[in-house]
Amino acid sequence: MRHILIVSLFLVASVLVQAQETKMSRKEKKAAQKAEMIEKTKTLIEAEAWQFSATQMLPAKGRSRSLTTSYSVILKDKKVDSYLPYFGEAYQADYGSTDSPLQFISDITEYSIEDWKKGGWIIKFRAKNKNDVINFTFTISETGSSSLNVISTNRQSISYYGDLEEIPKKEKK
Question: Could you give the angle at the alpha carbon of 50 between the alpha carbons of 68 and 141, nearest 5°?
Fold first, then answer.
């Protein structure tokens, strides 16, 4: 009887020790994944070649909207490829145009990167779309979560939320 009690106590103790080791390894895995995301984000920003994938937009007036279509801003070779929807008031617009004012490809000017006090970066630059000057301000956390504030000379400002990612490679057909 005594032997059965000792063996069962030993088994329970070994199961508890093994369960704690599993929990620690989960924490270690999570920390390793976070470190990998931080390094990936830092590499993308230093290379000045990345894609912001928008998942939500917040117009200056009105409610926020989740974006179900793939909208993005790609920065590469000192050019911006902006493909974003726009909701808001236009102070001046092209007559009869149905295109979004935030769908264009342009050279960028006044590019700057600042360290963000909460950890991460603030990236600012300016681009021109026809007769409109647009200021982009990205606030990027160290893990890649990002917000974008767009200020235009001819329209109300608008904000977007999403993630910083690698530019996808185009498949050859």
Answer: 80
93: phi then psi, degrees, rounded to nearest 5: -145, 160
Whole-number Å distance between alpha carbons of 139 and 122 = 5
Contact, 82 vs 103, CB < 8 A? yes
Q: What is the DSSP letter of 22?
A: H
pTM of the prediction? 0.76
pLDDT band, residue 122 (cuts 50/70/90): very high
In angstroms, the Cα distances linking 83 to 46, 69, 104, 125, 159 are: 23, 11, 7, 16, 14
Specify burial of residue 45 (Cβ count, 10 A radius: 0-12, 13-18, 19+).
buried
